[in-house]
Specification:
By secondary structure, the protein is an alpha/beta fold. The protein is 27% helix and 19% strand. Helix 4 crosses helix 5 and helix 6 runs parallel beside helix 7. It comes from Oryza nivara (Indian wild rice).
Length: 517
C-alpha cells in the first residue's frame, strides 16, 4: 500500500468525522460556523516526535489499524508518513517489515559514487535500527550487493544489523550480498535460543553458511533458498534434518555441493536445484515430493524415493528431449506437466512404445543444427491426454535448410491423430522445413485444436508492455528470417487451418524495427 491508498483511507476517515459532526450539529449538540471551519488550522506543531518536525492533526485511528496500514507500505512511504503523522510516528518504532536496499532507501545509483552510496546506506540503516524498538520485526531484507566491494565489505555493520533485527518472532529473513564473493560468514548463532522457531522463510545469497545442530529446531521453516552459498553436504543435511516442516528447497549456484541428500521430510513438495556444477548425486527420501526443477548434466545420479508422486518436472540439460522421451515414462509415469530445455539436441526424438498417460502440459525449448522437429510427434503419440504444447525453436548461429530452399515435398504422418490437443504455441517460428512440417502435422492431426500461435520473434515482452517502451533488439538476419517465416505461414499453413481454429501469427513490431527493415 502506498501514499495514495493511505490518503484515500484518511480522506474517508475525515468524511466520516465530518458527517458525525453534522449530525451532532443537527441535533443541537454542536454548533460550528462554516467560517470557523475555514479558519481552523490544518496542522499543529508536535514536539514529542523523534523527528522534531511539525505533525498534521490526522484522524484518530485505532493503533492496531495504523500499525497494519504502516506495515503494508514501502520503507520510503513508511518513513514519509511517520514524519507528518503522530500515529504513524509511534508505529514506526515497531514497524514489522524492514527492507534495507538501495531502492527502498532512495539511494540513487547513477548519481552517487561507491563510497557515497556506502556511507549513505550505512547511515540510513543505522539510523532506522537505532529508532526502532527491536520488537515485532516480522520481515528483514538486507540487500547490499551493489554497494559493498570485495575489498571493502564493512562486515561489522552486517553483524550489528542482524543482531538488532533478528529476534524471536521474526518470520522472513532475506540476506542478499550478491557481489561479496562469499566473504561474509553468516552468524548461525542468531538462529539459536528460540530465535529460529518462528522463521518461515530464509533466503541467503553470496555468503558462507555453516549451520550445526546447536541452532536448535527450525520448526516453522517452510521455504529455504540458498544462492551462491558455501555450505557442505553434512551442514546442509544437518540443516534439513531440523527443518521438519520444510515445503520448498531451492539451491542455486552452490558449487561446493557434490551430494545432495534430502531426508524424509513429510511436507517437502518442491525441489529446485539449478547450476550447482559440482553436484554428482541427488537422493531424496521425501515421500510427497511432487515438483522438481533441475539443471544439470545427464550423468548426475537421481535417486527419488517416491517417483510415482512426481507430477511436475522441469529439466534443463543437453539432449533433454531424448532423455525425457526414453526415460521418463517409466521413471516418472504420473507426470502431468513437463518442461524441458535443451540448448543442443544431438539426436532426433525416437518413436518408442512407452506412454505419458497423465501428461496434459508439455513445453520444450531446444536447439540443434540437424534436429528434426517433426520427430517431436513422438511426444504427441506418447501423450494421449496432452492439451497444451509450447515449443521454443532456439535460434542457431548458422542457417538451416528452409522450406523455400528444399524443393522436396512436405512429409506427412496421416496415421497419427491427437484428439485432445487444444492449444499450441511455437516461439521463434521460422521457415526451417522440419518446423513447417511439424506445424502442418499439428493442424491436420489435432482434431480438437482451438488455438494456434506462431510467434516469429523470441517471445520477449513487446514495447506495449515493456517497461522501457521499446521492443528488444533483433538482428537484421533475424528480421529477415521472421519475414521468411511469415511467407511460409501464408504459403503452406494458413490455408490448412480449419475455420474453427484461432490462428495468431505474431511478427516483429513495425514501430521498433521499422528502421531495420
Amino acid at each position: 500500500m502506498g501514499i495514495f491508498k493511505l490518503n484515500l483511507l484518511l480522506k474517508l476517515q475525515r468524511q466520516r468525522q465530518r458527517r458525525r459532526r453534522q449530525i451532532q450539529a443537527h441535533n443541537g449538540s454542536v454548533l460550528i460556523h462554516p467560517r470557523d471551519k475555514i479558519n481552523a488550522p490544518a496542522c499543529q506543531n508536535n514536539t514529542h516526535s523523534w523527528s522534531g518536525q511539525a505533525k498534521c492533526s490526522d484522524p484518530t485511528l485505532p493503533e492496531d489499524i495504523s500499525c497494519h496500514i504502516h506495515s503494508l507500505m514501502s520503507m520510503r512511504d513508511a518513513a514519509r508518513v511517520a514524519c507528518v503523522s503522530r500515529a504513524f510516528a509511534r508505529s514506526w518504532r515497531c514497524l514489522p517489515n524492514l527492507d534495507f536496499s538501495e531502492e527502498s532507501l532512495g539511494i540513487n545509483r547513477s548519481t552517487c559514487k561507491k563510497d557515497e552510496k556506502l556511507g549513505d546506506l550505512t547511515s540510513k540503516i543505522d539510523w532506522i535500527l537505532k529508532n526502532h524498538s527491536g520488537i515485532g520485526i516480522k520481515k528483514l531484507i538486507i540487500q547490499v550487493g551493489s554497494v559493498y566491494s570485495r575489498d571493502s565489505c564493512h562486515l561489522a555493520h552486517l553483524d550489528s544489523w542482524l543482531q538488532c533485527a533478528v529476534k524471536p518472532g521474526i518470520e522472513e529473513l532475506i540476506v542478499n550480498l550478491s557481489s561479496m564473493n562469499a566473504k561474509y560468514n553468516f552468524p548461525c548463532e542468531l538462529l539459536s535460543s528460540g530465535t529460529g522457531d518462528s522463521l518461515r522463510y530464509i533466503y541467503l545469497a553470496s555468503c558462507n553458511f555453516h549451520p550445526t545442530v546447536r541452532i536448535g529446531c527450525l520448526k516453522s521453516l517452510t521455504r529455504l533458498q540458498l544462492c551462491m552459498v558455501n555450505i557442505t553436504e553434512n551442514e546442509l543435511r544437518c540443516l534439513l534434518s531440523i527443518s521438519l516442516g520444510l515445503e520448498r528447497l531451492e539451491l542455486r549456484h552452490c558449487s561446493t555441493l557434490k551430494c545432495l541428500k534430502v531426508p524424509c521430510l513429510q511436507r517437502l513438495s518442491y525441489l529446485d536445484v539449478m547450476t550447482c556444477t559440482g553436484l554428482q548425486v541427488i537422493e531424496s527420501k521425501a515421500p510427497n515430493l511432487s515438483s522438481i526443477r533441475f539443471e544439470g548434466d545427464l550423468y548426475v545420479q537421481l535417486s527419488l524415493g517416491e517417483p510415482l508422486q512426481i507430477k511436475q518436472l522441469y529439466r534443463l540439460c543437453n539432449d533433454a528431449a531424448f532423455y525425457a522421451r526414453t526415460e521418463l515414462p517409466s521413471s516418472m509415469p504420473n507426470l502431468e506437466r513437463l518442461i524441458i530445455h535443451s540448448d543442443t539436441e544431438m539426436v532426433n526424438t525416437p518413436m518408442v512404445p512407452s506412454k505419458f498417460y497423465h501428461l496434459k502440459y508439455l513445453s520444450i525449448a531446444l536447439g540443434g543444427q540437424t534436429y528434426d522437429y517433426l520427430s517431436l510427434v513422438s511426444f504427441f503419440d506418447a501423450s494421449p491426454f496432452l492439451e497444451t504444447f509450447i515449443l521454443n525453436a532456439l535460434r542457431e548461429r548458422t542457417e538451416r535448410a528452409t522450406i523455400f530452399g528444399d524443393p522436396s515435398g512436405l512429409r506427412m504422418m496421416p496415421e497419427h491423430r491427437h484428439d485432445k490437443l487444444k492449444c499450441v504455441k511455437i516461439i521463434n517460428f521460422s521457415s526451417v522445413k522440419t518446423l513447417v512440417e511439424l506445424t502442418c502435422h499439428i493442424v491436420e492431426s489435432a482434431t480438437a485444436l482451438e488455438c494456434l500461435t506462431l510467434d516469429t520473434t523470441s517471445g520477449s515482452p513487446r514495447c506495449s508492455v515493456n517497461r522501457l517502451g521499446k521492443c528488444f533488439l533483433m538482428r537484421r538476419e533475424t528480421l529477415m528470417e521472421a519475414h521468411r517465416a511469415l511467407k511460409a505461414v501464408q504459403t503452406y499453413i494458413e490455408l490448412k487451418v480449419p475455420s474453427k481454429v484461432e490462428l495468431n501469427v505474431l511478427e516483429p513490431c513495425s514501430r521498433c524495427h521499422a528502421l531495420d527493415l
